[in-house]
Amino acid sequence: MTDAPIRVGLIGLGRSGWHLHAAGLAELDQYSIVAAADPDPERRAEAEARFGCAGYAEPGELLADGRVELVVVATPSHTHVPLGVAALDAGKHVVVEKPLAQSTAEVDTLIAAANRAGRVATCFQNNRFEPSFLAVREIIASGRLGELILIRRSVHRYTRRSDWQTVRRYGGGELPNTASHFLDQLLLLVDDGPLELFADLRHTISAGDAEDHVKLVMKPKTGPLLDLESSSAIATPQSGWLIAGSTGGLTATDESLHLTWYDPDTAEEVELHEGTPPGRSYLSGDTIGWQQETRRFDPGVAERTALYYQHLARTLRGGADLHVTLQSVRRQIEVIERARRQTGLL
Fold it and tell me: Where in the numbering of this chain does the GFO/IDH/MocA-like oxidoreductase domain appear (predicted)?
């Protein structure tokens, strides 16, 4: 066990590599960026100037750098597993950006490589630390919502994208590159049993040939129905969360949550009346003492990244359990693969 900073090599200095990983790691004393690889010489020069690190044009050069302990793979999606395996084979620990892989077979390849190397491999699912999600988990665990009926997660905006993530051969698409964050959250709220799946993936307003509109409905054998909408083609967005339970419900956005619930022990029992109702009205018999709570959140991404890497440091330096295991992400990739197969977008 040592307090020395974890020496990081970044592969890929694009949006995620620069704004999330590099920026986040630079704020943490537990890490030191010692190398960066990117084919763009201007990006390499920027990293060298900011972090005092070595710059490499090719990933293989970075993997040969003996100072690097932890490799962060922040490259286009279709390269994640090949580069992750190469990093593990070079004796490095590895963080792979989401999506972890293009298939469950690729996940298994990565797991095998990590086991073979005796190194830590994990996926950058930083939205497991999203404030609204943490609040949702806490409220569900408290039992205030009773038996859960429906959990809906909606990520709506109207954006006509034209970058590489709209192209299927690069691993593009709304489902693996955006919806995977929220699919990961939903799957953590139900047990590990089998799921019935309905998928609607559509290419609508963006460039390229990958889906930009995702609708998934998942039904476990027991527990709530899971409903996920992640779309670039919705100009009238709805709340990010809607949860219905037998004794309450909630709605939430990135910035706030509103909870309504009651204690069933304080409510009168509803009695059935099969005869003609008086006054030609519906009978409910409700005398419910509703309670309400509102919470506010700071939706910033920086804190989620910091929490993710702080947990990882405790694993690498202190032997703590890994927070995001490859096995926990495998189920997410399985659902993505099934949805693609169901809709012909494999």
Answer: 133-250
CATH 3.30.360.10 maps onto the chain at: 128-300
Q: In this structure, which CATH number among 3.30.390.50, 3.40.50.11810, 3.60.20.10, 3.30.360.10 belongs to the domain 128-300?
A: 3.30.360.10
CATH 3.40.50.12160 fits 6-124, yes or no: no
How far CA 225 is from CA of 48, 138, 186, 221, in Å, comes to 49, 19, 10, 10
**Residues 251, 241: contact at Cβ < 8 Å?**
yes
Comma-separated ranges of CATH 3.40.50.720 domains in the chain = 6-124
Per-residue pLDDT of the chain (346 residues; tens, 9 = 90+): 578 999 999 999 999 999 999 999 999 999 999 999 999 999 999 999 999 999 999 999 999 999 999 999 999 999 999 999 999 999 999 999 999 999 999 999 999 999 999 999 999 999 999 999 999 999 999 999 999 999 999 999 999 999 999 999 999 999 999 999 999 999 999 999 999 999 999 999 999 999 999 999 999 999 999 999 999 999 999 999 999 999 999 999 999 999 999 999 888 888 888 888 877 788 776 778 899 999 999 878 899 999 999 999 999 999 999 999 999 999 999 999 999 999 998 7
Q: Residue 39: is the preceding peptide bond cis (ω within 30°)?
A: no
Q: For residue 223, with 0-12 CB atoms within 10 Å meaning exposed, 13-18 middle and 19 or more buried, which class applies?
A: middle
